[in-house]
């Protein structure tokens, strides 16, 4: 695993063949960071320069093309916590409780020192500042531990800035509203800051030398003799930095360890979180926490083991699995908004991407965590009034509602069909039904269509998913009503087999036209049938088209408009069409799926800091890579996994608590980037599941989670495998409301 992958602008070898015809409109950078993270933990820690969007690195804000440098070198003004991972402009950038080791006067706080000799692995980050201080970070689920090794200095210090937050870009800073901190003596301190409406508390324990002093500071001046600072109300215009400091002389090699426990429920719980992570005492906390977190990462990694593959492909795969498990943040018993115990999950910041790939992967690897996430979503609806489209460590309205609608419904439907335990499904159903009329849902319920028209697809799928749970709970009348409204997705399409003209969030109607709907059979009929649907897809994916020119550094000339007019697949640089390659399965052309996925895996990902084609979006893009490499793809809300040619010779998976073995025959290794030149896609010739022929190109989620053995015969030419029996569609099933097969029709309320 290489946590540095995705931290710089995309630096991939020139694509060849089909992949060369795809056009990338969004920022060509992964927006990841190499900081220390615990799998699905609440806390991260990383060097902070203030760069976009994680606080790490040297690039400024970018939404299209290659980002422009903000700094010439990799710099750090200290080390912060709670970084985003792979997101874009979400306006909540965290980077709280900056810790800065210094041998300079306190006036130099805020200086950005060059980073040297950086290294990182899951759960650990290290670098040396140009002033000679060696810095190491590790984290637990709710804790962080810093270890600094100083050169000889007459007055060294470790400064904790409670006022810092956000990024060094326009409108990127975060200012505390209220704050209080207290020096407790003997290397201990505690405090709380209210950031973005969240009371975030910290308890600090350190092992500073006995000769060191401990004091508070305000506006870069020591408050001699003071042990407390309290601020009842802070405005951006009146903010002056404040915090805590440990200081004293050092010999070369002197180490100082700063141990921090965090909570959103006060300093007492913050201390308890630190004590629970280090039972028996805080001594040597760094090594103990690092080992615990290493073991946690190793536990997840051992659940997905692949056979063969070039070293580069294996590195990208392992790192993709790592990036897939950074978010969302699980913070059990930490909700600041409701007092009861229970699951609390935040940083579902890019749910409109995560629900397609990342949530199914999380639920497969850790069904118990998946159930807790679903319970948390229902609790959010119960306590705050709606099922979220995105949810961050911030108080306020759900600003993601413009992106999509009813996404939590797909996750809940999958969880119900998988039999995840611990949820009150009748109560979940109540919230799912109520939430369908939220936002754009009012237009959909009243008129059968909503604009932006992509919300029509979202809401129709939401009604379908809600009907699944209603029918499973025995409420057939409600299920019939919900299913009837779920057919209104047809209103979103025009006569050319594509979505109607509308506004779209980051994309156009071509990018949104190939979602894997719950009734793909009817969707294909709208396009005119298999042949016509395949022809539209072929145009979208650039079959027969020549190479295109990608965007460089802004400002752009006419190439942006030229690229948009292509109406082309955006090549994993943008996620609205990330599932589109598998639409061919429903038209009896799994060979096309194999060709596109092979091209994407070969040319859209690589090793090194520039190894991602676009924002990782909280792990959604990396999860896509994991699934695609395994020859599987989840269809959100439908308890369905489509089968394709894997990129590895085999794999041993521990999904759903059971062992699943993937075996191929005839697999031919291929590299990535330049090493992929001349390598062709491989095609499934036949398949067997648990010893029986698998003539269709899909498995149910229960089959995958239940364990078993999938054998795939591969060959260099397309076959007739999975061309006759298609993945299930809603109109394939009897329609209980009509007493027969469902018919395609325009919906009218």
Automatic annotation (TrEMBL):
Residues 711-749 are annotated as: Disordered. Residues 269-716 form the Glycosyl hydrolase family domain. Keywords: Hydrolase. Pfam families: Glyco_hydro_92, Glyco_hydro_92N. SUPFAM superfamilies: Six-hairpin glycosidases. Residues 2-263 form the Glycosyl hydrolase family 92 N-terminal domain. GO terms for molecular function: hydrolase activity. This is Glycoside hydrolase family 92 protein.
């Amino acid at each position: 695993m290489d946590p540095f992958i995705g931290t710089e602008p995309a630096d991939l070898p020139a694509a060849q063949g089909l992949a060369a015809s795809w056009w990338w409109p969004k920022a060509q950078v992964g927006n990841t960071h190499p900081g220390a993270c615990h799998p699905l933990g609440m806390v991260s820690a990383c060097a902070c320069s203030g760069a976009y969007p994680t606080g790490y690195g040297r690039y400024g804000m970018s939404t299209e093309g290659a980002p422009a440098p903000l700094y010439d070198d990799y710099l750090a003004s200290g080390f912060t916590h709670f970084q985003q991972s792979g997101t874009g402009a979400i306006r909540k950038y965290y980077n709280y409780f900056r810790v800065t080791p210094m041998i300079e006067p306190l006036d130099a706080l805020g200086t950005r020192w060059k980073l040297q000799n950086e290294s990182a692995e899951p759960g650990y980050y290290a670098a040396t500042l140009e002033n000679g201080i060696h810095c190491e970070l590790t984290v637990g689920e709710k804790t962080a531990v810093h270890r600094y090794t100083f050169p000889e200095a007459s007055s060294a210090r470790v400064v904790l800035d409670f006022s810092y937050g956000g990024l060094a870009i326009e409108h990127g800073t975060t200012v505390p509203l209220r704050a209080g901190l207290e020096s407790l003596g003997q290397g201990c301190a505690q405090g709380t800051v209210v950031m973005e409406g969240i009371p975030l508390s910290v308890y600090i324990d350190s092992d500073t030398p006995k000769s060191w002093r401990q004091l508070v500071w305000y506006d870069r001046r020591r408050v001699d003799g003071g042990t407390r600072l309290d601020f009842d109300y802070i405005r951006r215009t009146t903010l002056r930095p404040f915090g805590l400091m440990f200081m004293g002389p050092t010999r070369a090699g002197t180490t100082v360890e700063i141990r921090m426990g965090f909570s959103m429920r006060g300093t007492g719980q913050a201390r308890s979180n630190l004590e629970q992570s280090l039972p028996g005492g805080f001594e040597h906390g760094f090594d103990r926490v690092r080992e615990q977190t290493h073991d946690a990462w190793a536990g997840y990694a051992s659940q997905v083991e692949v056979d063969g593959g070039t070293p580069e492909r294996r590195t990208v795969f392992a790192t993709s699995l790592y990036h897939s498990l950074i978010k969302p943040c699980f913070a059990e018993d930490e909700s600041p908004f409701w007092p009861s115990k229970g699951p609390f999950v935040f940083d579902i910041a890019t749910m409109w991407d995560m629900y397609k790939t990342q949530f199914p992967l999380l639920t497969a690897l850790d069904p118990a965590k998946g159930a807790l996430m679903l319970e948390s979503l229902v609790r959010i609806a119960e306590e705050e009034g709606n099922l979220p489209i995105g949810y961050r460590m911030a108080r306020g309205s759900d600003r993601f509602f413009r992106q999509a609608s009813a996404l939590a419904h797909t996750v809940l439907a999958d969880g119900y069909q998988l039999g995840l335990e611990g949820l009150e499904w009748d109560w979940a159903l109540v919230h799912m039904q109520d939430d369908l009329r939220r936002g754009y849902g009012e237009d959909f319920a009243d008129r059968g269509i909503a604009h932006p028209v992509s919300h029509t697809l979202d809401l129709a799928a939401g009604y379908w998913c809600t009907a699944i749970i209603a029918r499973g709970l025995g409420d057939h009348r409600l299920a019939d009503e919900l299913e009837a409204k779920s057919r209104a997705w047809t209103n979103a399409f025009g006569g050319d087999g594509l979505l109607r003209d509308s506004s779209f969030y980051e994309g156009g109607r071509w990018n949104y036209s190939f979602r894997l709907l719950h009734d793909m059979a009817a969707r294909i009929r709208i396009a005119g049938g298999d042949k016509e649907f395949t022809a539209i897809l072929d145009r979208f994916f650039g079959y027969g088209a020549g190479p295109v020119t990608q965007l460089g550094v802004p400002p752009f000339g006419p190439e942006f408009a030229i690229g948009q007019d292509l109406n082309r697949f955006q090549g994993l640089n943008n996620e609205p069409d990330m599932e589109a390659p598998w639409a061919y399965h429903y038209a009896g052309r799994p060979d096309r799926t194999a060709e596109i996925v092979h091209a994407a895996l070969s040319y859209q990902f690589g090793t090194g800091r520039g190894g991602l084609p676009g924002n990782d979006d909280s792990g959604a893009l990396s999860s896509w890579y994991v699934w695609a490499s395994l020859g599987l793809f989840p269809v959100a809300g439908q308890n369905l996994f489509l089968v394709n040619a894997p990129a590895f010779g085999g794999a041993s998976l521990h999904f759903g608590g059971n062992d699943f073995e993937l075996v191929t025959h005839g697999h031919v290794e291929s590299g990535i980037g330049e090493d992929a030149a001349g390598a062709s896609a491989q095609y499934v010739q036949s398949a067997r599941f648990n010893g029986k022929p698998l003539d269709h190109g899909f498995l149910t989620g229960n089959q995958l989670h239940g364990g078993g053995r999938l054998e795939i015969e591969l060959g260099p030419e397309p076959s007739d495998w999975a061309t006759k029996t298609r993945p299930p569609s809603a109109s394939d099933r009897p329609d209980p409301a009509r007493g027969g097969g469902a018919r395609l029709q325009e919906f009218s309320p």
